[in-house]
Amino acid sequence: MKQDVRIGLIGTGFMGRSHAMAYHAVPFIFPAAARPVPELVADVSEEAARAAAEATGFRRATGDWRELVRDPAVDVVDITTPNSLHKEMALAAIAAGKHVYCEKPLALTATDALEMTQAAEAAGVKTLVGFNFLKNPAAGMIKRIIDDGGLGDIVHFRGAFDQDALADPSAPFSWRFERAVAGAGALGDLGAHIISLAQYLIGDIDEVSGQINTRITERPVAGGAAGYGDKAAPDAPMRAVENEDEAQFIMRFASGATGTIETSRIATGRKLWLSYEITGTAGAVFFTQERMNEIKLYRADDPAGQQGFRTILTGPAHPHYANYFPIPGMGLGYNDQKVIEAHELIEAIAGDGPLYPDFRAGWKTCRVVDAVLRSAEERRWVRVGEV
Ligand SMILES: NC(=O)c1ccc[n+]([C@@H]2O[C@H](COP(=O)([O-])OP(=O)(O)OC[C@H]3O[C@@H](n4cnc5c(N)ncnc54)[C@H](O)[C@@H]3O)[C@@H](O)[C@H]2O)c1
What whole-number distance in Å separates Cα of residue 94 and Cα of residue 99? Predict the structure, then answer.
């Protein structure tokens, strides 16, 4: 039996619950591996934290995240709070010698993300950013196909992350629309995910040219509303939206490949259109998270008359899938990606192995976001190294 790794979870909202669920599932899905122990949970009040601890099986609760960071029984600090809190919490955790698992985007700016990266590297702690879509067995398989040369030389990456979760103008104002708390809008929230996939699959992005747009410029303020799925009263006061609803950019990778990324939080009809098509000299691949258990693969050397995109259902031959099922086509869901992510975190800490995407990878994603924002503001191509 490998060592147990004790978790301190900060935040118990949308993502906090998903992480808590993952910790419980890890020993079932990866029984031979190191186990996470849900030790201590923190939220804004003692009461909220205690309720969450009872619901999620954490042993102890606190209303003060600093207490959690200092706690000697916590090995890894898991940060699932709004974006503006990531930096302060991560730096405190690193200073206390803890490993850090942080939700995306890593920070409000690339400058902050670099400071966090350098602090973690200097302290020698493990870090992981919650870009869970990289953990889908389909994404792992696509990476293998590319790395094995199955698509030939990569020519182009066409990516998108579109959702309509906030397309309704009466969806209330939340922290996601506030620059000081969220940073960028759709680009930092959704775009960061597809940027992280582009970097994972193709490599570093060197240069971007983009535009951003805020279509719904004010939203109703509803007391206590957390955002998704909430409704404001018709007579609610309005508050100005401070970041973009949508962004589009073209880019050049260090490898010489070209690409485009579009992202929108108001894309009517799209629920989880995290999608990408990668074109190579010997083949192509298409994936969308709305069909997250399917890979569409095209091989240029298929016989004439039989060429076309074939559908491959994920199965035991794909990374991590066999831990779930011995049969292809059973299908994983969103939370399973978090289970794989949590497993990789715990294994890397217990076995002192590598972890990806770490803070350095998270910083590179923030750099692309900042470069697109600068490009949009100054209406020119921006080298990512400039920011
Ligand atoms: N990886 C993904 O797919 C994904 C999906 C959604 C959100 N996220 C990221 O997760 C993070 C949280 O988003 P969310 O949707 O869960 O938000 P949320 O608003 O649902 O939850 C935030 C939680 O943090 C708590 N919190 C706020 N301030 C705190 C403080 N000072 N001390 C302790 N707890 C505090 C809140 O009470 C709440 O429990 C964000 O960075 C977001 O970008 C990632």
Answer: 7
- Provide CATH 3.40.50.720 ranges for the chain: 4-132
Domain with CATH 3.30.360.10 in the chain: 134-357+364-378
- Given a contact cutoff of 8 angstroms between Cβ atoms, the answer to whether 182 and 211 are in contact is no
Q: Can you tell me the distance from the alpha carbon of 220 to that of 231, in angstroms, rounded to the nearest whole number?
A: 9
How far away, in angstroms, is 66 Cα from ligand 1 center?
A: 17
pLDDT digits (tens, 9 = 90+) for 289-348: 999 999 999 999 999 999 999 999 999 999 999 999 999 999 999 999 999 999 999 999
Pocket of ligand 1 (CB under 6 A): 10-16, 42-44, 65, 80-83, 85, 103-104, 130, 132, 189, 226
pLDDT 10s digits, 350-380: 999 999 999 999 999 999 999 999 999 999 9
Q: What is the CATH number of domain 134-357+364-378?
A: 3.30.360.10
Under 8 Å between Cβ of 189 and 224: no
32 and 373 Cβ atoms separated by less than 8 Å: no
Distance of CA 201 to the CA centre of its chain: 15
Kindly report, residue by residue over 166-180, the tens digit of the pLDDT: 999 999 999 999 999
Q: Which fold has domain 4-132?
A: Rossmann fold (3.40.50)
Which of the listed residues 103, 173, 189 should we mutate to test ligand 1's pocket, taking the one with most ligand atoms within 8 A of CB?
103
Query: Residue 237 has what DSSP assignment?
Result: P
Can you say how many angstroms the Cα of residue 283 is from the centroid of all Cα atoms in its chain?
A: 27
